[in-house]
Amino acid sequence: MHEIRLELARDHDFPEGSHNHGYVLHAPLDSDGKLDQKAWRTHAPACTVSRFWVDEDDQHGRLVHGRHGWLFTYGDDDEDEPLFRLGEHRLNEGEYVSITEHDGIQRTFRVARVRRLPA
Known about the structure:
mainly beta; globular
């Protein structure tokens, strides 16, 4: 299992990106840094996500895999956040991923940190 910190990448609202907007997730990664779906099945209850956004309450949910791919879920279908082709992306530091947030806007996030969690 790994802890992966995603931070908002540069966009029109944040030309320098933002360390105060993003996600921290716990998930299994394979040797290439991609999500390990087989290991996820074994460790699904431990695969969590926390969304932090300045001036908003933190949200806590789970990383799940369904028939349409990976998503963050917070227990309310209206707030599920699909992850664009996340299974194909390497979650190595410096890489980028796109998330369609619950407001319907797709934003790009930079992988700011990856660390292995103790067993």
